[in-house]
Amino acid sequence: MAEPLETDSSLLVVILDVNASAWARSPLSLDKALQQMVIFINAYLALNPENRLVVLATNHSDCRYLFPSDPASVPPEHDIRVYEQFRVVDIKVLSGAQSMLAAQVNGGAEEQQSLISRALSMALCHINRVSESSLGKIWSRILVLSAGQDSPRSYVSLMNSIFAAQKLNVLIDICKVFGPNSVFLQQAADITGGNYLKVDTNSEASLLQTLMFTCLPDQYTRGILNAPGNDIIDFRATCFCHKRVVDIGYVCSVCLSIFCKMAPVCSTCQTKFSFRLGRSDSSQSNGKPSPSTAAMSTLAIK
Q: Is the pLDDT of residue 293 over 50?
């Protein structure tokens, strides 16, 4: 694998969690978080004129591109005090996020679970398309600003996206703004070589500080920096039957589906399992298993 160079361009895909239900409990308001994110995006674009940017927004029911989008949506104004590209990005990101907030509907029990897996899939598709059409090497990475809860129902699609990002050498950085640590996003950052950061929302400027000092450096710069790491990572999986995180489960030997309870038929691939109790020859000759033999009985799965 080629090593990143200082002159290489980068592609940054920013995924914004604009779930109003999740942000309502955060000490840091969504408006202030978006303003700090826009400052970070402008700093990223100023690092290298060849840098590329994509911004996605997601909530519990929708996922869409904020930038790039229709150029006609930006009013034609000219301000010599503002770089034109910065103005276009600022308007599209802020106005697009506000339109998603206005269109958000009640999602019931899963209202605080955003469609992060769908946003990651869209981001990886765009990264692959740009990489295939680009003449030079572009180092891509994804930044996720998360405030919602994990969605156990999207565990399979999320893990597929994580392993696809690992194969494409795409880093995934996570900024968790509010709530408990995300089990799935911790795994995403660890598997792809990115950073998982829990933002201190007691200070309003902590998000911008975290973004500028940890998420702004590209792949080349990270090789000479000592970035903060996450020593404790939760690698628990989600069962396919009840969609909940389990410590100990049963795995299908055919499709590797995980279940919290033993089942005779796999609900994913419909494989049927036959169970038998293995006994010693002495117990079979007597017709009745001895207590010691019954204690040593094992479960065999064909």
A: no
Is the bond preceding 68 in cis, omega lying within 30 degrees of 0?
yes
Instruction: Classify burial at 143, counting beta carbons within 10 Å of its beta carbon; exposed 0-12, middle 13-18, buried 19 or more.
Output: buried
CA distances from residue 295 to 53, 286, 289, 290, 299 in whole angstroms, order as listed:
63, 17, 10, 9, 12
Indicate the pTM of the whole model.
0.79
- pLDDT value, residue 76: 59
pLDDT band at 74 (very low <50, low <70, confident <90, very high): low
Question: Cα 79–92–135 angle (5° rounding)?
Answer: 95
Residue among 255, 281, 279 nearest 266 (CA): 255
Question: What is the Cα–Cα distance from 39 to 28, expressed in whole angstroms?
Answer: 16
